[in-house]
Amino acid sequence: MHIVQPGMEIDVLKENNKIANENWRLLKSHGIKSVDFMGSIGAGKTALIIKMAEKLRAKGIRVCAIAGDVTGTDDFGRFERSGMEAVNCNTGKECHLDARLIKKSLADVDLDGFDVLFIENVGNLVCPADFPLGTDYRAVVVSTTEGDDMVRKHHDIFLHSDIAILNKTDIAYAVDVNPETIAEDYSRLTGGLKKMYMCSVKKDEGIDEILAALGF
């Protein structure tokens, strides 16, 4: 049996937040805007980042990505094939990225060579919520293929995010999901103070609105 000693979890989170602050200061010192994309496997995080990067690069904005996965290089490879500079970051057995792993990954990035850093977190709607990485924004991405109860089941990750994105709206009818149900759940959770941004990466719908919400 694995026993967590009292205070151990608090110490881990405190240390993570300390390193996250260091990461944020480092990125700001180089004038880099950063976004941490969280969400479950298959939500479309990789495709969304690639599409956003394409639009930013068309404006002359230099973009780099960190691909976070438990193992493998699949998403890292997709970033590179799209023309992006990228760093692969495997967590081993951990179900989330943490600030320490990002600090290590940043050592492999030419911080003077980029204006924007996109971080794709490990596919998970639970663990990443408690571990800020030191980015300007935290975004959570879900898709219509996951059903209409994502917000109701995973309050924390939505409450710990600055922006919520619902992807694959173009096939909502095929999976019998009403996007408005998800948007209404999110509005109730946030007291009506935030809206859920809807998009279809495949059809290039809603991406510009998301970029604007992130200040691009």
Task: Briefly summarize what is shown.
The protein is an alpha/beta fold and 216 residues long. Helices cover 36% and strands 20% of the residues.
Please name the defining characteristics of this protein.
216 residues, alpha/beta, Rossmann fold
What name does the CATH topology carry? Rossmann fold
Q: What separation lies between the terminal Cα atoms?
A: 48 Å
Strand content: 15-25%
Instruction: Flag low-confidence runs.
Output: none
What strand line-up does the widest sheet have?
3-2-4-1-5-6-7
The total count of strands amounts to 7
Number of helices: 8
Word description of this protein:
This protein is α/β, with parallel strands linked by helices and 216 residues long. The chain has one domain: Rossmann fold (3-Layer(aba) Sandwich), CATH 3.40.50. It has helices at 8-29, 45-57, 74-81, 99-106, 150-153, 155-159, 179-189, 207-213, and strands spanning 33-39, 63-69, 85-90, 116-123, 137-143, 163-167, 196-198. It has a 7-stranded parallel beta sheet with strand order 3-2-4-1-5-6-7, sandwiched between helices. Strand 6 (163-167), helix 7 (179-189) and strand 7 form a beta-alpha-beta unit. Helix 1 runs parallel beside helix 4.
